[in-house]
Amino acid sequence: MEVGSGVGNxxxxxxxxxxxxxxxxFDCSSNAISLxxxxxxxxxxxxxxxxxxxxxxxxxxxxxxxxxxxxxxxxFMLSAVAPEHMDDVIQKINRKLKMGGTVxxxxxxxxxxxxxxxxxxKTTNKLGENFYRRSDGTFTYFFSLxxxxxxxxxxxxxxxxxxxxxxVLSNRKRKIRMYRVWAQSKFVKVAETPAAAVAxxxxxxx
Length: 206
Description:
With 206 residues, this protein is of the alpha/beta class. The chain contains six helices and ten strands; from the N terminus they run E-H-E-H-E-E-H-E-H-E-E-E-H-E-E-H. The chain has one domain (2-205): Rossmann fold (3-Layer(aba) Sandwich). It has helices spanning 11-17, 30-38, 83-96, 113-121, 145-153, 194-205, and strands at 2-3, 23-27, 47-51, 69-75, 97-108, 126-128, 131-133, 139-141, 157-171, 176-189.
């Protein structure tokens, strides 16, 4: 299940590499989903794409049944969600995953080049710690590993991997270096509810 699929830039390579896997994909943009469904590689025998704004509504059960998904991907989508809605988003994904199902996560990390640009501009668009509004009105959040760990653990997940992927990219034409920091994580579902997750975490640490 690809959360925030856009037009399918990640979906179609995954479909090609995994010919025996069925995929769900959704996005808040009806235009993006329309373009995805018009792609030559899209077929309802292999994938089901639909419109859903996960920050405002549940993932419809008639599209994806609870407890049926093996893997969910969250690729540069949670950073666009206001922090006060992040717990709700993770809980909605939790409900669709099987017990032992995995979330594959990749998003902006703290001190990424984009955040440094906000610092350099001394922007007035800072809305909170590591949280900014872009000029087009969309949000951008930059994750620390501690914030990510806490977010997923309190919503029914255990950590399989939680690291930074740091890279220096060179633009020879502009003669600049771009210092990128991305959070890259894997989380496994260990509890159905936040309350159960708290109980499990407490018992395992005692």
